[in-house]
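Protocol step 4 of 6: structure prediction from sequence.
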Amino acid sequence: MSFGVNAQLSLESRAEALRQEIRRHEHLYYVQDAPEISDAGYDALMRELQQLEKDNPALATADSPTQRVGGAPREGFVKVRHSAPMLSLDNALDEAELQDFDRRVREFLGGEPFQYVAELKLDGLSMAVHYSEGAMRNAITRGDGVEGEDVTENARTIRSLPLKTDGSFEVRGEVIMPNAAFQKLNEDREQEGLPRYANPRNSAAGSLRMLDPKVTAARQLDFFAYFYLINGIPALPSHSENLERLRGLGFKVNPASRVCADLDALLAFIREFEGQRETLPYEIDGVVAKVDSIDQQRRMGWTAKAPRWAIAFKYPARQAETVVAKIDVQVGRTGALTPVAHLRPVVVSGVTVSRSTLHNEDEIARLGLAEGDTVVIERSGDVIPKVVRVVRQGENRREFVMPKECPVCGGAVSKPEGEVIWRCVNVSCAARLKNAVIHFASRSVMDITGMGDVLVDQLVDKGVVKSIADIYTLSAETLAELDRMGAKSAERVVAGIEKSKTLPLPRLINGLGIPFVGERTAQILANTFGSLDAIRDADEATLLTAEEVGPKVSQSIRRFFEDSRNLDLLDRLRAGGLQWTHQKVDRSGGPLAGLTFVLTGTLPTLGRDEAKAMLEAAGAKVSGSVSKKTSYVVAGEEAGSKLDKAKELGITVLTEAEMLEKLKSGRA
């Protein structure tokens, strides 16, 4: 008996020794870039630990390096609220704007000494990771800044992110895909006959949200830490001290960070790394400057959307010359025909660019562009490529002519007077279908759980769904036969489809994809006419009697209902059992009747739809834009330009609590 106990203790000791040794080598390799052993030596240690834990399951621990390989695929991600908002930063696009930021800092601090910390602005996505008694508890994406998605299992696969450290705290940082990993990923995709990914940032974001952690593990993501928080606030007196603390805890902190005594030192840092952008192993798009003292940060505070003590200096977009080989036309969800330039491939800021949208035929005319011309391409924000100007006309240039019929379905196209966009009027056009189905199934429209991009791609590509009406013919058996679905997922989608049949008529109207008819206009139409049949039969003059419906919208609605294919779609949707009528609501006598509210930012306790419904139930009108007719603006965290507009026009701004008080009292 004694021998067995001693043997077990020996196994436990060996397993713990292996874990500590592997962690040390991971830190040396992935964080310090200073490996001590070969890959084969590391693999031997890992295999020994894996075998020990396999033979003795009781020895396995949640923070073991073996847990980085990724668990079983999941069906979705859970939303989690952040300990404190993860706010965005204001931008400085040139040195003059940075000087203006420095002036504001000095004025606010009233002449007291201060210094900056400069850090490279990594082009990735933000993530918060929580540790409890040294063990990773969860990892949450930035999301909307107030709440994000729990991606803990995927975060565990990032080798530079410790699974075990000391203490209970929160670390925030940037998840990136290094250029070498991005290049390998695209090479692998090409070999598999798949399209290349556009840029490392989007690839990192997509990889972190993979439903299968094993896929994430293969993507070689990296993590740089930049905030060390306890109970949602910085733990040490200065930002530079917090960075050093993170290094001491085993986190990867970007070595290109520097304490800058003044603006001149900050500008020197910015210029130094602008010249090194092409040689860095990862993408950057600027430099972040933060006041170092946490006390000074606290006293300077925050605006509704960003801290006053920090700014992101954005490097100019990078450009290159290339030739426009061809211009063709793509068809979007609402039928919009968009010219796209096919370019002679050119590398712009480390990314190969071969296509660029040209927006519309008026933009092509403004540029004076034709096929065969040499143009300047710019990656706006270092991501989206655009044609800036023509630098040389081609010898055999070919003028672009917008097609007179849809290039995909051959249906009629239309461009009303005063508009710049040509549109295919056939809602079941194959080119429109995928985006139309995704829009129809989205949370704010028909809210069909589980019907995301990947599933829609399969349904359309396999010919299972040829119209949004086909959604209501899907069975669990059909869905379960698709890749990576399974019986449980299929049943969840079917349940979501059934539930969508009970949603009110405005949701269906919004889902039809009628140009210029969004959520609010759909609500107005349903409340004005009471049924989809009445809207279908209304002429333009009758449609104009609806509030906020002008000539452009009424013409668009009539064109939609004059197409026989769209009428066939409606018949099939009606047969699917969707809501066709709407109970008109007379709110003219409500306590807030005659008042117009605008909601902006994230409210502390109410969702946007919930707040809107409460206001409308009290007779108020809720608008999407601020004007002189606006009575109140209700502002939450990260309120943007609408709040600025309200202040400019002198419109009263309410908090959520003040709005609720008005609803309770019924007084304007």
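Step 5 (inspection) to follow. The CA atoms of residues 334 and 513 lie 6 Å apart.
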